Amino acid sequence: MLLRNEGSDAAGVPHFYDVAMATGADDIKDARGMATADFDNDGDLDIVTNNNPGDSGQAEKARATLLRNNVGTVRNWLAVELRGDGKRSNRDAVGALVTIETGTGQKQVRLVGAGSGFASQHSARLYFGLGEREQVSALVVRWPGGRVERFEKIGEQPIGARRLVRVVEGEGAESLGLPTRQSSPAGRQLAAAR
Length: 194
What we know:
Blueprint lengths: L2 E6 L5 E5 L1 H4 L7 E7 L8 E6 L13 E4 L7 E8 L13 E5 L5 E5 L14 E6 L3 E2 L1 E5 L5 E4 L1 E2 L2 E4 L2 E6 L3 E5 L10 E3 L5
Parallel strand pairs: 5-17, 6-15
Antiparallel strand pairs: 1-2, 3-4, 4-5, 6-9, 7-8, 7-11, 10-14, 11-12, 13-14, 15-16
């Protein structure tokens, strides 16, 4: 099952549509865990499942399945990685809250978590969809130890789209480009669902 969020109706009731078959994500295996990460560094989250061969003894049924998200229009994004100082906050920054401000009054918030589910762990890198926006007006990190850091620029540059921002607690931030991986031998591309 792969659900696409169709938004809410006039009464505020959310609607979802199962797009697994239409996208090619309906692989019939005994999946025991699922995690998301940007495996090809293109700014969208891909899905990997780990599978159980059961009593079949067939090793190919136990191989992980990577579903590369290459669906839809390419839009702008911002990725954020955090490292706590290891004293006030844990080094993995679990519990940190990151907020981006777009300058239009809109905000997006992400929480660094740990433990995503059975036999799974999502990437700790946080992703924010920016649509057509080329930059964000501010990035705010509320660290688990209570410190709050706000960045409106990195160096002298605005915080631009399609970048990875690495923040080390108490030491500042850097903005990096990501090398995009165009192919993945283990991956399967998802098709667009209509």
